[in-house]
Amino acid sequence: MDAEAPTQLLDPGLTGQPARPVPGIDNGFLAGYRVRFDEAGPDGRLRTSTLLRYAQDVAWRHSEQLGFDRGWYLARGLGWVVRAVELAVHEPIPIGHTLRVSTAVVGHRRIWARRLGECRLADGRPAATVTTDWVLLDARNRVVRIPQDFGVAFTNPEVKSEILRVEPSVGEATSEIELGVRPSDLDPLDHVNNAVYVDWLEEALEAAGWREATEVLPRTYRLEYLASAARGDRVNVVLRGDPSAWQASIHRPDGGELVRAQGSTPG
Amino acid sequence: MDAEAPTQLLDPGLTGQPARPVPGIDNGFLAGYRVRFDEAGPDGRLRTSTLLRYAQDVAWRHSEQLGFDRGWYLARGLGWVVRAVELAVHEPIPIGHTLRVSTAVVGHRRIWARRLGECRLADGRPAATVTTDWVLLDARNRVVRIPQDFGVAFTNPEVKSEILRVEPSVGEATSEIELGVRPSDLDPLDHVNNAVYVDWLEEALEAAGWREATEVLPRTYRLEYLASAARGDRVNVVLRGDPSAWQASIHRPDGGELVRAQGSTPG
């Protein structure tokens, strides 16, 4: 069956709607995500990683609405992958709450584009923001220049700023855990979904006795994705720093680095 | 903040709507779930376990709509837990598709209630069904008799049939894997969410070289939940049988059985 065919029949409440969440950007998209039981942890709040799941989904909805659906990408052998993400959490988001998640492409340069995802509570207060730098890969997983095709649909400024990066962590490792990739961690690109690494980071923080780093509000995480973990891989998550300013490296046992991350909380 | 307060502001497309999916049952509920990118596997189809996530979420929405929200349960120290589930998958469910998931309590006996969840494609074809037998626990995790409170809101027949069970598996074990509970597997009841065990079963089937058992359509899984896995636990998943008729036992290293399961495909 065809994944695109049923689009006509969709409820607008589920498909979302065009929006202009960012001044000066002439298109964007808004959809609601109700926090499910399985998406909340023992504290009854949305798991941090799920913010990335919502943000990538609303980006897909927006892209589809403008004609760039899964079929469009498959036909061209192209696919966006997340190169870096910055996640800021401001408010607790309880189970059963419907988050308003908006998205807009706020800028681009030759080989990357930046999306801003804003998550608001039903009363309008900002609960979280997800800034994502995407790069486009071809069928051989090579970064390609962003084609003109997107120009008309996604008008946004060419920016001077640099793609998000995370410095290599330095200093003595504080703790380390080892994890195995589960088949359920894999997404349609057949690699570990970018949100899963946030679960791994929080697992490492918790194992280090730094659970506060995963609970304090506000807090910010930044991740730079260097390479993908795949089916059957084992990974090590190494922490440095302290709960209010930590650095992490997720690498393969042979040392190949997959993700660099850092987190901070005020004060 | 109050999880219930924003309900007034919700889009009906997201909150769902009353429905009568089962003849003879005078109430039920229907909501749409669009398959997100992170909810699909490398084949671009919804992960089987996510059907249980949708089914438990739509049950919550239905319950809330009738006045039994999280606050109601917390105030009384009560909580439904899944005692057994039967999952039948009929059709592939692709990423981006909006499943129509309906739910109704189709029967009850003294200490358990049965919910039928039906998942339909946008064109109306049935894609999956999830039958769930729930029991109600008090604050000390003891099974309690279902109180009269539910009677008026959830009218359904008292049934003669028995609660779903799975026979202990017999014969020589075919394969076994060991897994650790991840913090991200825990739900608001602070135990491993019932859907996660389906991921574990499919991981064990795949590790045994029986991936066909997780892909063939139609296929049926039945799970009986005997005890909960919790933070930090390790579990073993033991398989018996063959890909078209398998049995599984998920147990703690000390032998304490958590879940019995079986799966079958026609022919």
Please name the defining characteristics of this protein:
alpha+beta; Thiol Ester Dehydrase, Chain A; globular; disordered N terminus; 267 residues; 5 helices; 2 domains; 12-stranded antiparallel beta sheet; homodimer
What does this structure look like?
The structure is a homodimer of 267-residue chains. Chain A folds into 2 domains: 142 residues, Thiol Ester Dehydrase, Chain A (Roll); 90 residues, Thiol Ester Dehydrase, Chain A. The first copy, chain A, is built from 5 helices and 12 strands. The termini of chain A are far apart. In chain A, a hairpin with a 5-residue loop joins strand 11 and strand 12. The N terminus of chain A is likely disordered. Chain A is α+β, with helices and mostly antiparallel strands and 267 residues long. At the A-B interface, helix 1, helix 2 and helix 5 of A face helix 1, helix 2 and helix 5 of B.
CATH fold-level assignment of the largest domain in chain A? Thiol Ester Dehydrase, Chain A
SSE sequence of chain A, one letter per element? HEEHHEEEEEHEHEEEE
* Strand-residue proportion of chain A: 25-35%
Biggest β-sheet of chain A, characterized?
Answer: 12 strands, antiparallel
Measured by residues with Cβ under 8 Å of the partner chain's Cβ, the largest interface is: A-B, 56 and 57 residues
What distance separates the N and C termini of chain A?
Answer: 53 Å
Low-confidence region ranges of chain A: 1-10
Helical percent range of chain A?
Answer: 10-25%
For this structure, what is the CATH homologous superfamily of the largest domain in chain A? Hotdog Thioesterase
